[in-house]
Specification:
two-stranded antiparallel sheet, globular, about 40% helix, mainly alpha, about 260 residues
Length: about 260
Amino acid sequence: MADFGREDLSGSTFDWTDLSRSTFRAASLSDVTIRGTDLHRVKMTGVELYDVDISGDINGLRINGVDVTRFVADEVDRREPERALMRPEDPAGFVAAWSLLEARWDETVDRARRLDEDLLHERVDGEWSFIETLRHLNFATAAWIRRAIDGEPDPYHRLDKPWDEAPDDKGFPNDADARPSLEEILDLRRGRQADVRRVISGLTPERLAEPFSPPDDDGWPTPSYELSVKEAIGIVLNEEYLHRQYAERDLAILESGASNSG
C-alpha cells in the first residue's frame, strides 16, 4: 500500500492498476478520462461535480440521496424510443429487435461508404474507428452466439477485435495494426449477422430461459457467468445498438471534417 501526499501526478496513466479501497482526499481529478474501469461501490462526498459526462452500464446511482437510475433510463427511452425494443421479453420481440438493428446498420454502412475509406480507419477523440467498431461487433457475436450459445470453443477470426481491456490469456485475436478494407470486414459481418438470425429464428420461450452452454475451458465467456440464452442474446442486441450510436456520432464528425477540407 502506497501513500501519496502533496504530489503532482497530473498527466499520469494508470493502466491495469488496482486502486480499489483507495481514498482520494482534497485531490484534483479534473480533466480525467476514465475508460473501461470498474467503479462499483464508489462513494463521493463533499465533491464538486461540474460539466461531467458519464456513459456506461449504470445502476444504483444516487445523487444527493436521490436514486436517479430509473429517471435517467426513462428519459433516455423517451428520447430514443427504439432503445426499449432492445430489451425484448419473447421470441417475437427478439426477431423485431434484430430486424430493426440490421435495417439501421444498413443505413449507417451506406453513410460510411460515402466517405473516403481512409477516414473509416480514423479514430475520433480516441474512440474506435468505424472499421474497428465493426471488427468488435464481429468479436461480440462470435463470443456470445458461436461460443456461449453454440458451444464453439474458438469461434474467432483473426480480424475480430475484443474490448480494449480484454485479458491477454484467453487467446483472443487482437491485431491493433490491421487495416482491413471495409468490404473485407463487411463480408465477415454478414456471416456473423446470419448467426444471430439463425439463433433468433429458432427461439422459443423455453429456449430463452435455458442457461447458455459455452465450453468449460479457459476461454471466454465461461459457464461461470450463469446467464440464460435470453441474456446472452440481449448482450449482442445492446452491443449492436450502442455501437451504432457511437458510429453515427463519429461519422458526423468525420463528414464535417471532410466537408471543411473540401
